[in-house]
Amino acid sequence: MVKVVCGVLIENGRVLMARRSAIMEHPLQWEFPGGKIAEGEIEEDALKRELFEELGVNIHVNLALQPVLWKYPDKQVELYPMICERISGTPRPLEHQELRWCSRKELKSLNILDADIAILNQIERLL
């Protein structure tokens, strides 16, 4: 099982989504930014590291959401989503093809990774 953290950054009623590049697994789909938890790393520290590496931002974690267990044909993923706030830095797509701040309506038009839809359902009331 692959353990992954993902950050839900919400600002001004919009959530930050990241579009995977054409060479990544699940190409061109949208996701909450984050990544794999390193051996011995706690979830919150992993998220801080991943969002700095992927977006160039420093964050503070406000709330851990319900973990999501998702089965893909070739692997099983356990996602640890967290609502966080940006402390410093301007998000830049350092690993993704594109970043977009999305309203609730805009989110419905994106091709979002299946596992991330379960996270979206948890945060809908916040948007």
Reconstruct the topology from this structure.
Layout: E1 2-11, E2 14-19, E3 30-31, E4 34-36, H1 43-55, E5 58-64, E6 68-71, E7 76-88, E8 98-102, H2 104-107, H3 114-123
Parallel strand pairs: 1-7
Antiparallel strand pairs: 1-2, 1-4, 2-3, 2-8, 5-7, 6-7
Structure description:
- This protein has helices at 43-55, 104-107, 114-123, and strands at 2-11, 14-19, 30-31, 34-36, 58-64, 68-71, 76-88, 98-102.
- The chain has one domain: Nucleoside Triphosphate Pyrophosphohydrolase (Alpha-Beta Complex).
- Strands 1, 2, 3, 4, 5, 6, 7 and 8 form an 8-stranded mixed beta sheet that branches.
- It has 127 residues and is α+β, with helices and mostly antiparallel strands.
- 21% of the residues lie in helices and 39% in strands.
- The model has no long low-confidence stretch (mean pLDDT 94).
Distance between the ends: 31 Å
User: How many β-strand runs?
Assistant: 8
Return the string of H and E elements: EEEEHEEEEHH
Question: For this structure, what is the CATH homologous superfamily?
Answer: Nucleoside Triphosphate Pyrophosphohydrolase
Summarize the amount of helix as a percent range: 10-25%
Contiguous runs where pLDDT drops below 50 for at least 5 residues: none
CATH architecture: Alpha-Beta Complex
Overall average residue pLDDT:
94
SS element count, helices: 3
Q: By helix and strand content, what is the structural category?
A: alpha+beta
- Total domains, how many? 1
Report the portion of residues in β strands.
35-45%
Identify the overall geometry. globular
CATH class, named Alpha Beta
Radius of gyration: 13 Å
CATH topology, by name, is: Nucleoside Triphosphate Pyrophosphohydrolase
Task: Note the main sheet.
Answer: 8 strands, mixed
